[in-house]
Amino acid sequence: MLRLALLTARTRPGSFAGALLAFAMSAVLVMAGGMLLEAALRTHPPVERYAAAAAVVAGDQKTGHDHDVDLTERVRVDASLTSRLESVPGVRAAIADVGVPAVLGPRTTEAHNWSSAQLAPYTLTAGRAPRRSDEIVTGYPSKLGARLLLASTGRPRRVTVVGIARPRRPVRSRSVIFLTDTAAARLAGHPGRVDAIGILASRGFDASRLSAAARSALVLTGDSRGKAESPELQAGRTRLIAVAASFAGLGAFVALFVVASLMSLGVQQREQEIGLLRAIAATPTQVRRMIAWEATIVAVLGAAAGIRPGMRLAHVLARGLVKHGIAPRGFAVGDARLAAAGVLAGSVAVALLAVLSASRRAARTAPTRALTEAAVETRLIGPGRLIGGLVAIAAAVPLFAVSAATTTPATAAATSELDAIFLVIAAGCLGPLVAKLAARLFRPLFGAISPVGGFLASANLGAASRRFSSASTPLVLTVAMSCTLLFSTTTLDHAVTAQRHAGLSANLALSSSGPGLPPSTLNAVRSTHGVDSAVALTPTTLGPSLGVSGDPIPAAIVAGGAGGGLDVGVTAGSLAGLHGDTIALGRNRANAAHAHVGERVPVTLGDGTKTNATVVAIYTRTLAFAALRSLASRFPGLRVRTHASLASADEADRETNRWLGPLFVGIIFAFTSIAVVNTLVMIALRRGRELALLRLTGATNRQVRSMARWEAALIVAIGLGVGLAIAATALLPLSHSLTGGLQPYIPLNQLAAILGVSTLVAVIALAVPTRLALRKRPITALASAE
Amino acid sequence: MTTSANAPKTQPRRVNLMAGLRKRAQVAVLPELTLRGVRKVHGKGDAAVVALDDISVTLPAGSMTTIMGPSGSGKSTFLHVAAGLDRPDQGAVTFGDTELTRLSERRLTILRRERIGFVFQAFNLMPSLTVAQNIGLPLRLDGRRPKRSEVRDAAARVGLADRLRHRPAQLSGGQQQRVAIARALIARPEIVFADEPTGALDTRNGRAVLELLRSLVDTDGRTVVMVTHDPKAASYADRVIFLADGRIAGTLEGATADEVAEQLAHLGD
């Protein structure tokens, strides 16, 4: 049967090449996604500043019911742990590290306590250790004796470079300066608590003994020490994994869908040949084995061809992720073997499944069917497709409900995407019904407008509904997925920007390129002549609380109370009361937490600290500021956020939306467009005989082309119509949960581009094979129809 | 067939009378089909096969001619060239005043649509159209809207008036051939070409098809050219032309099946 499979493949180069192409493209997509995901899972923050420490004791950055939510602010440990840890046998020294963002002269850096220099270790190459609070040592080459302005959490002041130190191994992730221990602690502003404690080991050290002394803090060794060094990267890593996983998942779905529908189309087109095989006494098992062999050959060859381009795509994407700050420096895809093996095995499995389920009926085909007209479909839809379609719809309904009801944009976006996926599956399964319905609707109209072309096209649509549905399904996939992915991003982006604009009515905004502005700036600005009022905003996050369990909540710390250019649409209470342990909540948050003005609500802060705050106001522009709180005076350390974490929380999110989103959409669009061409050409190639017969009955080439055009119009109309309907179903609840309205933000040029390009691709893919078919003499075509 | 819509179908006598009248009226204008010095070579170089070699013949109007010959004798090529489906390498094909060999592909198509009908061995019908739509297709392609009565009459003529709403796949092979003949009837072509029309049929169905083709000549005054290898089928014709190696190897007028078989058996001599 293997021989026979090879022989039949040779005689049908058209559909064979189509299937190969589909597998190769799928392999590229899945390969790239898989490698990115593997790299994202493998990635961890580098160990640089704690390279000399045998172990690092640090706070647990995870929180939440399932211990799976990353806190975006550093969870600090009690300074008193240092002495407890030092008493553990085998510990030579336990050294506390305290860091605070700073700007020294023009350079953005991090100020640490001098004793923590031993953990790298940094050794002096010139000068001496700092002794006074206005003396510093730089961790990079600089000029000894230079007097520079140091801006950090306090008032900017002049300091003197008294020493230059060099790390034993290069520290690339940040640049560091050192202050005296007391000066560093004062700037950090959280007495009694330190960022992490590094352990220097002596003979007989055993990391497992530290756990008891460390209490609830974590003991990190080896590569995981990097987590304590840069906890802000951990949240970035989670997002990177999410990004890679969504690409891999989406890629796998699209690939699976395209390959499965193409394979079943292939079998469907060969019913006559299968009937013939049955007629010359091939048993159903033999027929199925032949088809299985074919599928395996095509899958393996196609997937193998896609592996190398897939690796290239993964490399390109990884570089892009690093360049756009979504992945940390040094992020690179690694070994391709795992992904390649997965792609090969997956391809064969999908091919076999698709082909065997499609050929089950074909193999049972009565031998007599060989002599009947194979182009005629005996039934509209099988029980498998019907059940599949209904199940997919059943899955989509609750997702729709969730995305319409949820108050978190992230949840709304994720569920609407899934919603679209299920609806695409449903459309693929129930497509023939849609085509039949469209035929019923359009037939009188088409017949009236165009008595030859339109009439024939709508007759074909009604009689060959499965073929038409196979043709329009990839278009549905293209339009639905592209529109949903792209416009959920633009809708979210647009809503946030619009609310921010409305929320910040200020004339001027001050911001810092580095670690933020010291609080004293606010007073300085206010006392400036001509300034009416001013408010200080510090973006931050809260841990899971206030009715949200799975994600950090974006928030802003407000100093300066009401006025000052902040207009968030307060509906109850007043922002004037926002000082001390108070909080203002967005409408959605307040509803979720069942909170009213004047009540005290439990809140988890960005570093995991649990506390209570009094609700002083409830407001409506929730996308701009999910929660406003005024706990700054009690937790002065929270006031300033490091440049890195600011970038990771805001910039990276925006980059993910603005760069990565469209890129993914572009890749998916390109892939599905190739699937569109593939499927349409495969279908058009098979129509040689029908076209020839039509011409022999007296149709001119123009009439045949007119029919082909009407058919293309029908395929495109169904594909685009259903695709847009699915996108609308996914986007409307998203828009509702984000803005309360039903207007997803859809840039018309992007929509026009998606629809225009898909239409163009489909029309060309249908027109070219028809034109080629018309070049042959009809009588030759009739005799040699594939 | 010009029975009006309200003419009852149970009056065959009257129908025949009318057709007969028309036949007499049209005999003068019905065109002949003439092949002059036609040569057709398939393939090139060493693989070249001479399918037709200097064929000259005139097929009189209002008659039924059968082309016979062993496999590879060129009978299918003859049919294709005569019908304007294929162009000869040399020579001319003339239908009445029109020289087919000089027409553009588009003019040829229109000529075929208006004046020529086809019945093939199989795959005659558009699978997506119903019987009625298939029968009316030539009119539709000509820009006319087929009248329901016309279609019904044509279907009744081939005995399929009750199958109008069926799809080709729901019909037997013989029924499909009869639909193809009904389609050839409705466009009122002057000449009908049939390529092995009974090749895939059993004896009884084959006979029905042949009788219908015969009635096209006798009742409607059309010209029928048929390719077959069945002597019984050939015996329905007014004239049998034998082909061997691309040349005309003999002609029989009004022959019986036995005479045809006899001649066929000695073609190689």
What does this structure look like?
The complex is a heterodimer of chains A (786) and B (269). Chain A is built from 21 helices and 22 strands. By secondary structure, chain A is an alpha+beta fold. Chain A has four domains: 189 residues, no CATH class; 176 residues, no CATH class; 273 residues, no CATH class; 124 residues, no CATH class. In chain A, strands 16, 17, 18, 19, 20, 21 and 22 form a seven-stranded mixed sheet that branches. In chain A, strands 6-7-12-9-11-10 form a six-stranded mixed β-barrel. In chain A, strands 5-14-1-15 form a four-stranded antiparallel sheet. In chain A, strand 20 and strand 21 form a beta hairpin. Chain B is of the alpha/beta class and 269 residues long. In chain B, 36% of the residues lie in helices and 23% in strands. Chain B contains nine helices and ten strands. In chain B, strands 6-7-8-3-9-10 form a six-stranded mixed sheet, with helices on both faces. Chain B has a four-stranded antiparallel sheet with strand order 2-1-4-5, with helices on one face.
If you consult CATH, what is the topology of chain B?
Rossmann fold
Segments of chain A where pLDDT lies below 50 for 5+ residues?
Answer: 631-651
Strand percentage of chain B lies at: 15-25%
Most residues in contact: chain pair: A-B, 32 and 34 residues
Distance between the first and last residues' Cα of chain B: 45 Å
What characterizes the major β-sheet of chain B?
A: 6 strands, mixed
- What's the name of the CATH homologous superfamily of chain B? P-loop containing nucleotide triphosphate hydrolases
Order of helices and strands of chain B: HEEEHEEHEHHHEHEHEEH
Radius of gyration of chain B: 18 Å
Quote the average pLDDT of chain A: 77
Count of all domains of chain B? 1
**How would you classify the helix and strand content of chain A by structural class?**
alpha+beta
Largest sheet of chain A: 7 strands, mixed
Helix content of chain A: 55-70%
